[in-house]
Amino acid sequence: MTEQEMKDLRLRAAKIRLGIIRGVFAAKSGHPGGSLGTAELLAYLYFREMNIDPLNPKDPNRDRFVLSKGHCAPALYAALAERGYFAESEMDSLRHIDSFLQGHPDMKGTPGVDMSTGSLGQGVSAACGMALAGKLDGKDYRVYALLGDGESEEGEVWEAAMFAAHKNLDNFTLIIDVNGLQIDGFTKDVCGPEPLDSKMAAFGFHVIEIDGHDLGEIDAAFKEARAVKGKPTAIIARTTKGRGVSFMENQAGWHGKAPNAEEFEIAMQELNKALENLEVQ
Amino acid sequence: MREIINKATRDSFGETVTKLAEANPDILVLDADLAEATKTVIFKNKYPERFFNAGIAEANMIGVAAGLATCGKVPFAASFAMFSAGRAFEQVRNSVGYPHLNVKVVGTHASISVGEDGATHQCNEDIALMRTIPGMVVLNPADHYETEAAVKAAAEYAGPVYLRLGRLAVESFNNSEDYKFELGKGITLREGKDIAIIATGLMVAEALKAAEALAAQGIDARVINIHTIKPLDEELIIKAAKETGRIITVEEHNIIGGLGEAVAGVLSEKCPTPLKRVGVRDVYGHSGPAKDLLHEFGLDAEGIEKAVKEFV
Questions:
Q1: Rounded to the nearest 5°, which phi and psi values hold at A164?
Q2: Residue B58 annotated in active site
Q3: Where in the sequence is the domain holding A128, given as residue range(s)?
Q4: According to the model, what pLDDT value does residue B22 have?
Q5: Prediction ipTM score
Q6: Claim to verify: residue B135 and residue B264 sit in the same structural domain
Q7: Does B52 touch chain A (CB under 8 A)?
């Protein structure tokens, strides 16, 4: 990846963050913390990694993305809008009564959403089904699922992990967004899902651990995953919940709450400043 | 007339889904370590490359089926009713029902005729669970021929279907060459003017026997087979209510949430009619030979006959 390409992805991530805060503020509810933490991962997936076409969102040969941590819908919608699936202004309708941007992803209503998710743990299973279908049809598309570390407390995740490894789904990449926080506090205090690296390895995954905000590491991880044959890959991405908005960073309290008008102004100022800094670089 | 076949509906399912798979390469089968019992083993033996064992992990099995369906596959995901409809209810609701995916959830060994395995495996709640999911079709065929037709209809219907099947062999009665299965349409098996017995699944054959016995005692009972619990044939039920003035429902299921309450809902809104529900009366089952359990719970011809006589 060239410096210019890297810079472009950083800009995309910055815009995704702006879209998240815009949407959550307009909705007066939603999940900004986890969403902000996924911006680089989504920027990379939607602008570099995935073979997709916003003009043909149902293309049977496309790569698939399943947001298993469906509450981070604002991030997915912001990425889809940035990629051109729908107008950026739609972010203002997030969670509104007549909007196609539901509180959690709805594949029937939103262009570019490959699976309806929100009930935790379920997206990973659906992604396995998509990967299995690709194998059966001899297609070379790839399937990605984004899982939260708190979400990994769901038993279904491990049922799916066992399945993916047993069925040799090497076209499946599971990205675990490890921000160490969940609604009730630190994951280590709630029920302790770690160590996720050795658990995934024991379940038969090729495991890569990265800084989930470092686009160089993200790039290397996805390239490595493509080269792995015979088993699925888990990319364990260490992230900062609330990344980019100073007062939201590493605060469990910003898991599922919208900023008020004052907080919104501060957040937008910070995010716009970050964007400007990137642009002048 | 076609030959009388004495076979459990799960066997008929396993044979039929295997037959259909020949013409439809998109049909796949998933199971959760019960292939010998659910009879998906028949499919597995013929199409091993299209059969997937999810292991003892029903939630994931349903989710995988949902993912396969988004890619144009027609997955039949089978386990005991207790596990496919019960344990994985929320996966069926959120990953299959909400996106209206083309998944066929199969629940065999429904209700107390499971027999010796006892209460943990005797699912008396699956109809209730599945019929509350918007857009879900709920099928409960009564014999071999009806199961063949129901599996075919499920495969042809583009959307989520729950298929309820039994463990126990049942003698076929839909033997006529003219037998026709129409999704959402009940079948009047016997005309009658004194009362209408509306039955489903394994109970239909028992209701027919009960009607014969009642006829000998001067009670002219109509018998209606509801193989599709959802969408329910409201027209046929209202017609029967108007013409007989008395309805009795019979199901191998909790009286809460099943066929009886579905019929009661229609009638109380559109044609209030005295109604009695025969079913498992909000209790758990227990171990024992299936036939003895059915007798104990009043879910055989004798029990139905008694219930009708108390009611007319």
A1: -60, -40
A2: yes
A3: 3-280
A4: 98
A5: 0.97
A6: no
A7: yes
Residue B262 sits in a domain of what CATH number? 3.40.50.920
- pLDDT at residue B218 greater than cutoff 90: yes
CB proximity A115 to B under 8 Å: yes
Co-location of B201 and B165 in the same domain: no
Q: How many domains is chain A partitioned into structurally?
A: 1
Among candidate residues B15, B58, B125, B148, the one labeled active-site is: B58
Q: Which residues of chain A have pLDDT under 50?
A: none
Where does a domain end: B141, B171, B201?
Answer: B171
Residues of B with Cβ-Cβ distance to A122 under 8 angstroms:
59, 63, 66, 91, 94-95
The gap from C-alpha B160 to its chain's centroid, in whole angstroms, comes to 15
**Among B161, B170, B185, CA closest to B294:** B170
The pLDDT value recorded for residue B193 is 98
Domain presence at residue B180: no
Q: What is the pLDDT of residue A281?
A: 80
Average pLDDT over residues B232-245: 98
- Range(s) of the domain holding residue B119: 6-171
Confirm or reject contact between B76 and chain A (CB < 8 A).
Answer: no
The pTM of this model reads 0.98
Q: Which of A60, A108, A125 sits opposite B100 (nearest CB)?
A: A108
* Residue A15, domain CATH: 3.40.50.970
Average pLDDT over residues B161-183: 97
